[in-house]
Design goal:
about 400 residues, alpha+beta, Alpha-1-antitrypsin, domain 1, 2 domains, six-stranded mixed sheet, five-stranded antiparallel sheet, 8 helices, 14 strands
Length: about 400
């Protein structure tokens, strides 16, 4: 990462490393590898929460994010500036609070580029406002905020991350119909193929094959292929650990080398990439794995966030909605991560319930959208079924 010899650069580099570490731990904690998730969207939200937390909740959030809560808002500010400096990424934070509580300005005033709104108590109107914010901040890729508001909700904190880039070297698309393996089918998939002279885009690291598909801006997508028997989370974790590292050779899973005729007198070697298009989305309930995100204590009754408000607050919801599309021309992805809070001991109408969303998805190869200058993994996922090939009419 350029400029990491400065103090600010070292702080930012640590934030990138810790965010990537959270992505890897999240993947390992899931029963099945997801189609898409974004540790890069969840990490700054948790860091912001840590800055307002106290006691065991503060310690757990600090352990999950890897940053000192006293410095967390500064680190998140640098992190947001990094993403905003990119021509193809967008990062936003949003905060909505009820008039029933008072939010400390020394905490909220340091949120990077935050949108501030009010929760009016009209659940339908408030949800519509949150959904509109999610859609606008993700370039229309995610049309809703992944939270169900209840009469108990007094504060909502969210981050939105969007990526949109076109390939430096586009693919050709064509029907792809394997004769064996997991993708054998009577209906063809939408295959993508391209030849380039950039053999350096191929790396084999720790037994996984990684091909970097370069974007025109500063985001690349790493396609990560492991052995057939390898666990998806381990393949993706190996891909994350390999960001910025050199490969050990060109022979790995899915790689073969052969000669073919050429009409050139001195033909240059070619890297031929055959892959598939995909369009995936997923919802994640972060509270299914509270230990990964440092939220175990914050879920219990108590005044866990005195730095956010003098009113006793606890976490009621934490979720993420994410989407990613890989096509012949480029890549786009987005994630909205949200935490809801309720006030401990506040009298509320009876019968309020929290909606819990369970998502179970798995895919045969992994992908990582990586911010090239910093190595930050923006989104990660596992693709099981690619898009179907359709004949143009």
């Amino acid at each position: 990462m350029a400029g990491t010899d400065t103090g600010a650069g070292r702080v930012l580099a640590a934030g990138v490393q810790e965010s990537n570490g959270l992505t890897a731990r999240w993947l390992r904690a899931l029963d099945e590898a997801p189609s898409v998730l974004s540790g890069a969207g969840a990490w700054p939200l948790l860091a912001v929460l840590s800055a307002g937390a106290a006691g065991a909740a503060r310690e757990e959030l600090a352990a999950a994010t890897g940053v000192d809560p006293d410095r967390a808002l500064d680190v998140v500010g640098a992190y947001a500036a990094l993403l905003e400096s990119s021509a193809c990424t967008r990062f936003s934070t949003g905060l909505w609070s009820s008039p029933r509580i008072t939010v400390r300005p020394e905490w909220s005033g340091r949120l990077p580029e935050a949108w501030f709104g009010r929760l009016t108590g009209d659940l339908d109107a408030d949800k519509a406002a949150l959904d509109a914010w999610a859609a606008e901040r993700t370039l229309g890729l995610i049309p809703r905020m992944p939270i169900e508001l209840t009469p108990e909700t007094v504060l909502v904190l969210a981050t939105a991350l969007a990526v949109r880039t076109r390939w430096a070297s586009p693919f050709e698309d064509a029907a792809y119909q394997p004769t064996g393996g997991a993708w054998r089918t009577d209906r063809p998939w939408l295959g993508l193929r391209r030849d380039t002279g950039d053999l350096g885009a191929l790396r084999v690291v720790d037994g996984v094959t990684i091909v970097a598909v370069e974007g025109q801006d500063d985001v690349d997508v790493h396609l990560v292929l492991g052995e057939a028997a390898s666990a998806p989370a381990e393949v993706l974790a190996a891909g994350i650990a390999a960001v910025g590292r050199e490969g050990t050779g060109e022979y790995g899973p899915g790689v073969s080398v052969h000669a073919e005729p050429s009409f050139e007198s001195d033909p240059a070697p070619v890297l031929r990439l055959n892959t598939v298009a995909f369009d995936v989305s997923a919802d994640h309930d972060l509270l299914r794995h509270p230990g990964v995100f440092g939220l175990a204590t914050a879920l219990t009754r108590g005044a866990h966030f005195p730095g956010v408000s003098a009113d006793p607050l606890e976490i009621s919801d934490a979720a993420q909605a994410a989407t990613a599309t890989f096509s012949a021309r480029g890549f786009e992805a987005a994630a909205v991560t949200v935490a809801g809070m309720r006030c401990t001991g506040m009298l509320m109408p009876q019968g309020a319930e929290r909606r819990v969303v369970r998502v179970d998805v798995d895919r045969p190869f992994g992908y990582l959208a990586v911010h090239r200058p910093s190595g930050l993994v923006l989104v990660a996922g596992w693709v099981r079924e690619p898009k179907r090939f359709q004949i143009s009419r």
